[in-house]
User: Fold these one by one.
Assistant:
Number 1:
Amino acid sequence: VLTYFALASVVLVLFAIMSDGWPAVLAISLVYFFNSIMFPTIFSLATRGLGADTKVGSGLVIMAIVGGAVFPPIASWLGQG
């Protein structure tokens, strides 16, 4: 499911790049739908089989989200100087 939804997202983004107007807006809106399956699937795949380390592993996956939100503005600020 993850592979199919990721491919559908890529196709929709390419379609949005090559078109304009409402079809492009609709394509980008559909990308959100196809991305909706990604986090739960990636999270469950990343924490599967960790055994006693499941709590630490799930915490690291969540912290990766925070890092993805925090580090781009920091990198942009550093790049300006």
Note: Residues 48 and 54 are 8 Å apart (CA to CA).
Number 2:
Amino acid sequence: MQTTDTLTLSVFADYFQFYLMDESVDEDFGALWDDEAVERLLAVGRSSIGVGTARNMAVPVAVSLFDGAPDLDPDAWDMVNECSLALRSGRLVILGGTDYLPDAPRLPVAPGDYRVRISYAGLNTLSEDGLDGDDFYRIDLWKAPPGPLVVRKARAGSSR
């Protein structure tokens, strides 16, 4: 499949998380971060996703829009999750937990339902103080009917 747009960002993952969300939605993640979500580093709402991170710092994130499901290469990643996301406004917002919403980066998309694949790399590369590391988060999305959350590859040592 072809990439139609990509954003490469440094996102401040305050509280070890950042968000992908429809611009017009404000979902509460309090109940979504249950024990299973924490373990898989992913909390899923209808129109927003909380992505867990290895560090409580700025982390590198690449968000790519595809014209169809991209190839899956689980061997290249520490873990891979996939879920659905409704983007009715036509604007995907990427932001940290304490970022100011009006200033957050946006990726224009056609309104509708999307599949989102979150691939995590370098989760075990943190410095002893947890401030530095080579962790990386790739977000791939494409238009697709809603479907269940799927753990494509669990993190080594995970109970899932």
Note: Residues 35-40 form the longest helix (6 residues).
Number 3:
Amino acid sequence: MKKYVFVLQGVIFLLLTACSGLKYSFVGVDIPPDAKTVSVKPFQNNASLVNLKLSNQITTALKDKFQSQTKLNIIDLRGDLQFEGEITNYSVLATAVGVDKAAVNRLTITVRVSFVNKLDETKNYEQNFSRYADYDSSKTLAQVEDELVSQICEALIDDIFSKAVGNW
């Protein structure tokens, strides 16, 4: 029995040694091993309908995502990974019509993101990301806005993060 334990320990040691140059993560993150920093410029709000908290909410959520999911340091400018962007759309439209009025409204948020990976330029992108959430028209936007914006921002941040460093 001791022989098998010794062999098993040796195999584990060899596997760990052989894989020491790889960057591995259980969350499916693909970040160059030399990357140490990420910078996120504040997202500008250029939508025709403006939510005053949204710019800060998206910027902070993206930083928080990198802080919780990676070992990269967050810096203000010129990170190894760099994000900047703008909110291009914040709109409410009726999506389902009931008797005499809209039964469901949809809040849509669109952001344009520019991502630069200084260590692997093939990963650079500029892309629009859009997400929405529906709500009952018996409620006003003011009644549901904070909750919906939080849901939409979480989905947008997941999309932006996955596009930049996801390994799927």
Note: The longest strand covers residues 81-97.
